[in-house]
Amino acid sequence: MATVDDVRRQFRNPPPEGRPMMRWWWFGPSIARDEIDRELTAMAAAGLGGAEVAFVYPMGPVTAPFGSPELLELVGHAARRARSLGLRFDVTLGSGWSYGGPHVGIEYAARQLHWDRREIGAAAYDVPIVTAWPGDEFVAAFVGDGSLGAPSSYVEVPVRNGVIEVPAGGQPREVLIATSQVTGQNVKRAAAGAEGHTLDHYSAAAALEHIRSVAEPLLQAATPKLLGSVFCDSLEVYKGDWTPGIFEEFAKRRGYDLRPRLYELFADTGEWRQLRIDFGRTLSELYEDNFLKVFQQWAAGHGVPFRIQSYGEPPATMSSFRFADIFEGEGWGWTRIPETRWASSAAAIYGRSVVSAEVWTWVHSPSFRATPLDLQGEAHEHFLSGVNQLIGHGWPYSPTNGPGLGWIFYAAGALDDRNPWWPVATDLFASLHRLSWLLQQGTPVRPVKIYIPASDAYADTGADEPNNLYRVVRRLIPESIPRTVREAGLDYDLIDDDAIAVVDPADVPLIVVPEGTTTPPKTRRWLDAVVASGGQVVTDPTGYLPAAPITPPPGVGVVHRRLDDGDFYFVANTGPESRTLTFDRPMENWSTSDEPTLALTLRPYESAVLSPTTGTATTAPTEQVVGPVQGNWSVAFDHNIRPVTLPHRWEDDPELATYSGSATYEVELQLEHTDGKLFLDFGPGEPVAPDSEPYLPSNSYRALIIPPVGVAAEIYLNETPCGTLWAPPYRVDITQAAHSGANALRVVVHNTAANALSADQHLLEATATVTKEFGRRFDLQHVEHAADYLNSGLLAVPTIIRTS
Q1: How many other CB atoms are found less than 10 A from the CB of residue 565?
Q2: Does residue 283 fall inside a structural domain?
Q3: Structural domain containing residue 514
Q4: Fewer CB in a 10 Å sphere around the end CB: N or C, the chain?
Q5: What whole-number percentage of the chain has pLDDT above 90?
């Protein structure tokens, strides 16, 4: 905790904590020392806080196969170089995702329970047990009277000498045969040398084998004292719902035998719903005990934090996070329940002050389409969802001397110094750093809790979402519940059956339990205690929400954090239209050092940090439009100077349609008076429809605006740097550089590398080559759309604004 004065003072120049990091993809691996040094130096120069190394599929000839001494030596070199540059260095404990590889034999591989249903007549049957694939294991067989899925109950069939002996019956019957099978899933996006089965996340022996074969060599290569954390990416162990020894574990944890009722996992008979709840809960506990705890305790033994994205398959609960050190989410959507909220709720409940998120996954697809405004807009969505440490997705390692644009990751922005807009990256990352650091101060104020219907999720997982507790929960909680809370200017935490053990019911003024939710007896007693303490338990928050300190207009999100002696608020406009907030008491705007105010207008995708003050609100300065910047504009591409008329869009010129780079616009600016404050304003930009790029997947973020400067600019007046432009408001202060009479205005505009990508055949050729050699491990994302909807250049005539 800290005081308001402490936080306000440090906000403009915060300590290094909270700087955005980048996931650093090492393709192949095909890595060289000199390029490692160059890219880490570029990260540091841009104001990034560090890199998380991820080992993925080849993009060229492999020089250091995964796990080889050559690769481990390069990992150590990168860790030492990062430390010398003041960067944090993290390592993913495996290649691709989920954990696995050639060391994972059948005994350690992920398994699923497979069911074979057959209708038979009244005669007896002897069915030999046949294993179709190596590792298949017979589990049990059952028979029930009736057909067409009609039996109301089943009994186990005896097995002798490898034969299932189905006795004779008096009517048509149905036989169910359960087999444990290796899922067959291999590591996704694996590097060369890392191919193999995904491991069984319910098996401590499998976890320890992965530590011995992969994690320990990587950690020792990097040197534990040089590591910021070791990392586990997404849990995507598809259909993995079985493990050897589960009958014993189930009986120990649930107090009754699973085997005679196993058929209830498949057939809706008997007390099937409760059994599936108990089975799902057992899988969650086995994941916690035999994977999470094993890796966290191993990492702790080396003094290194264990960071994980703990959601997906296996069925991690929200509270499963508590067995890790750093909680991480992904996904944006501040009025919804993204994975980010799963992590930030756990962090708030279990006392973690820092919660990270994988940010910019699939951002404005394809790679190189993302603008600084896209990155800022999506980052704000994560901040509004409780995140305060960004892990950018990401930075592709790419040899400097490679052909074309080089290497990219298939499902992310290519967020490195190949982007023409990189000259403004320092300002972008500095802005995000300030906000990340700020949101790590104090504690979150989230007066609403939303109960996670885990029991119903365990019971309702189906073929489309097997064992993915998070996804089923998100479906069971109506979207209107989080949206109502957030649009009211309030915030919430998710809470589950484990979390109630550490949350005092007296500290819960309002909890929303979705209608029809099943609650275990212990949870019902806790909910009763909430009511006894003066809180409310409702099925819909409408009409029950307390008054918010700030009531936002549509599209504006609010984060409230409490310090020792006061509060501050992060507010962000998440849409393409300007929005105005009004306050019932004066607010200081830390983002602009404005005087106390009772109103604030946020331009599209703009944010601010507010704090209540006892000062007297002042009147906003009066603005006067002096007029547009007239004169004979010129533009220079690589010293080729020519006259130009604004607006000027590069894509309208066939010779520039595939140009990615910079251009310098110049004009003589005449100023009669320089009293007051002078601003150069390029306008608000033009909103676009959400469906203007219909090929984009729903998780591909883009700012819905065509900027007046496409896509970023540096402004110089009389050779004095006045600022950079890459997000609304597209306005810079030119007061100190201006003088009466003739002024030399220079606007250096940078676009994206998407124009060049649209003409780059190298990526397609490289993909075809590595696919032929290593098999299909990825598909490039939407590269055929690289040239769609591009707007580069100086797209508006700037205006001079005077304030007084």
Answers
A1: 11
A2: no
A3: 445-503+510-538
A4: C
A5: 92
pTM listed for this prediction: 0.97
**Mean pLDDT value of segment 289-304:** 98
Contact 647, 695 (CB under 8 A): no
* Contact indicator for 2, 567 with CB cutoff of 8 Å: no
Between the alpha carbon of residue 695 and those of residues 69, 372, 559, 751, 787, the distances in Å are 43, 21, 32, 22, 13
Tell me the pLDDT band of 576, cut-offs 50, 70 and 90.
very high
Structure tokens at 264: 């209830």
Does residue 468 share a domain with residue 389?
no
Whole-angstrom distance, CA of residue 429 vs CA of residue 725: 14
Give the pLDDT of residue 639: 84
pLDDT over 70 at 1, yes or no: no
- Number of Cβ within a 10 Å radius of residue 597: 21
Domain match, 163 and 147 both: yes
Give, in degrees to the nearest 5, the angle at Cα 608 between 606 and 613.
Answer: 155
Mean pLDDT of 411-434: 97
Cα 681 to Cα 672: distance, rounded to the nearest angstrom: 18
Helix (H, G, I), strand (E, B), or coil: what is residue 756? helix
For the chain, what's the residue count? 804
pLDDT category at 152 given cuts 50, 70, 90 is confident
Q: Residues 32, 34, 39, 44: what is their CA dihedral angle, to the nearest 10 degrees?
A: 140
Mean pLDDT over all residues of the chain? 96
Domain endpoint, select from 620, 642, 662: 620
Answer yes or no: is 300 within a domain: no
Spatial distance between the Cα atoms of 778 and 366, rounded to a whole number of angstroms: 14
CA 726 to CA 374: how far, in whole Å?
Answer: 10
Least confident stretch, 337-341, 607-611, 673-677? 673-677
Q: What are residue 709's DSSP bridge partners? A: 794
Q: CA 781, 785, 786, 789 torsion: positive or negative?
A: negative
How far is Cα 545 from Cα 598, in angstroms, rounded to an integer?
24
d(CA 27, CA 778): 12
Sign of dihedral through CA atoms 456, 460, 464, 469? positive
Dihedral pair phi/psi, residue 705, rounded to 5°: -155, 140
Does pLDDT of 804 surpass 70? yes
pLDDT digits (tens, 9 = 90+) for 459-481: 987 655 678 999 999 999 999 99
Q: How many CB atoms lie within 10 A of CB 686?
A: 14
Q: What is the DSSP letter of 211?
A: I
679 forms beta bridges with 733, 801
Q: Is 199 found in the same domain as 65?
A: yes
Strands 163-166 vs 159-160: parallel, antiparallel or unpaired = antiparallel
Q: Residue 658 falls within a domain, yes or no?
A: yes
**CATH at residue 491:** 3.40.50
Quote the DSSP letter at residue 4: H
What is the phi/psi pair of residue 662, to 5°?
A: -130, 155
> In the numeric block, which tokens belong to residue 219?
């950690």
Average pLDDT over residues 593-615: 93
Average pLDDT over residues 77-88: 98
**Cβ–Cβ < 8 Å for 623, 604:** no
* Nearest-angstrom CA–CA distance, 705 and 686: 5
CA 788/CA 702 separation, integer angstroms: 13
The answer to whether residues 703 and 377 touch, using CB atoms and an 8 Å cutoff, is yes
**Which of 116-130, 141-155, 251-265, 290-304 is least confident?**
141-155
Rounded CA separation 724/743 (Å)? 19
- Whole-number Cα distances in Å, 623 to 577, 676, 678, 679: 20, 10, 10, 10
Q: Which residues are bridge partners to 571 per DSSP?
A: 558, 608
Q: C-alpha angle with apex 566: 565 to 572, nearest 5 degrees?
A: 150
458 lies in some domain = yes
Could you tell me if 165 and 72 lie in one domain?
Answer: no
513 confidence band (pLDDT: 50, 70, 90): very high
Both 748 and 779 in one domain: the answer is yes
Residues 146 and 218: beta-carbon distance below 8 Å: no
